[in-house]
Amino acid sequence: MKNEQKFEIKLTPDQIRSMNFRKILFGGYNPLDVEDALNKIANYVEELLKEIDRLKKRNSNAPDEILKREIENLKKTKEILKQQYENQIREYEEKLKILRHEIEVYVNLKKEITKELASTLKHIKNLVNHTLKQDEVLSEKLKKLEEKLQKKKERLKKDKFQDIKEENKSITKELESN
């Protein structure tokens, strides 16, 4: 009985199953993986507790030395499980580190593309503005040329009219002289 009081399980299977972990932005642990790992640990601890109870009942009259060995074996098993769990956490942390790096690369690439697009858009706007100004200048020149052409047409008409008038005068004089 004295040894039973020294050996107390501080975590019950239900306590292990109900453990929660904080999530972090852009990742964290996969809740299903953590829950699965906790359930496996809880089931194993439950089996260990049953085994301890079974051994206590079987060895209630056994010497303390046998119980001590059993307890040591259980402690070693517990330590192995703890090490496996810590290794799994380290593995998840490494994956998280890689994902963070990939996200950083993606964000930087997005920034570069955004800058390039802004520069291209600015260049296109400048080209459009330049083209519009050129169009205005060409429209104005075309208008002036059309005006000149119209004036020349009018002058030509006047000149032809004058020529016809002159010709008529000449014919009229000839007719009069005859």
What does this structure look like?
By secondary structure, the chain is mainly alpha-helical. The protein has a domain of 106 residues. 85% of the residues lie in helices and 0% in strands. The protein contains 4 helices and no strands. α3 packs antiparallel against α4. It starts with a helix and ends with a helix. The N terminus is likely disordered.
Helices and strands, in N-to-C order? Answer: HHHH
Radius of gyration, rounded? Answer: 50 Å
Oligomeric state as shown: single chain
Helix content: over 70%
Structural class: mainly alpha
Mean of residue pLDDT values:
83
Unreliable residue stretches? 1-7
Give the overall shape.
rod-shaped
Per DSSP, what share of the residues sits in E-state strands of 2 or more residues? under 5%
Would you count the extended β strands for me?
A: 0
Q: Distance between termini?
A: 166 Å
* Main pleated-sheet profile: none
Please tally the helical runs, counting DSSP H or I stretches of 4 or more residues: 4
